[in-house]
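[job 0412] stage=complex_fold ligand=3-hydroxybutanoyl-coenzyme A status=START
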Amino acid sequence: MELTQVTEETLLKEFQAKIDADAKIEPNDWMPEDYRTHLIRQISQHAHSEVIGMQPEGNWITRAPSLRSKKILLAKIQDEGGHGLYLYSAAETLGVSRDQFIQWLHEGKAKYSSIFNYPTLNWADIGAIGWLVDGAAITNQVSLQRTSYGPYSRAMVRICKEESFHQRQGYEIMWKMMEGTKEQRAMAQDAMNRWWWPALMMFGPKDGDSPRSGTAMKYKIKRETNDQLREKFIQKTIPQAHLIGLTVPDSEIKLLEDGTYSHGEIDWNEFWTVVNGDGPCNKQRLAHHVKYHEEGAWVRECAQAFEDYLTK
Ligand code: 3HC
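[job 0412] stage=complex_fold status=DONE, emitting structure tokens
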């Protein structure tokens, strides 16, 4: 047996023993290539999601219905940009530059969460995004706090602290609208109807259809599967909707004897259509990102020149 092969096998055994013992893997630790590449993909796409997610909400800053709601929305969107920076920094520890991540995104080689490829038509959508989209993200991210990769886990702990404010402010918007006029209640219900199913799609493919869930669970990158997390979110959110008088747009929802809810199935054709680039806003979101990345090049160049001056 080749020395390198023995070393590789020994290293892999030692690595898996660390994973099985719930130890954190740090950037300078040896790690198998499929662990590294899985993390590069997942963390960078998570970062892209945070930044692209600023677009649909950003459309409503100038049209927020009060100064208070404008301030809250500004704070939330600023948080999302910061989440993107934490996650790009965590992804860069795996040996890939931020410029490379952005290039992959612009070339269509990297994705971001499908949820941001739907339009925000009115103020109720901002409530639905905060409550449902950030609520789904929290369900996923609370679990990711226990991911085996140290920098990702620590980024999640920080991000989760801010996400709970995002979810609550969204639910407050929906609650206020449901206590409002007939038109406001209709707007909130319409937003619920448009955002419920895309929010469930945020948890990814069904466990049996996910090409990567196996690796994610073997290496404890993910601690719960896509379906487990999706179910957790559904069971938690249906009572929240009913509490403020919203109807969940799923005719198969029934309260069962054990206190949980039965529910229908996602339209997986819609899921894969949007994931594969043909959603309502895919082209618009990417074009916007490319345009402002290029227009902002001078800021990056100035910052780099200043750093070069300080360090020469
Ligand atoms: N949106 C976009 N692409 C998706 C997707 C979704 N909802 N679900 C799956 N995909 C893509 C995958 O990226 C993969 O594409 P690729 O091969 O080009 O990379 C392909 O579909 C196959 O899917 P996988 O089996 O690999 O998907 P996973 O089992 O890994 O599940 C995931 C996808 C749920 C996004 C998972 O990667 C994950 O949990 N990522 C970390 C959490 C995350 O990224 N959340 C983003 C939510 S938005 C957010 O947090 C912002 C907040 O402020 C609202």
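Residues 30 and 289 are 35 Å apart (CA to CA).
[job 0412] exit 0
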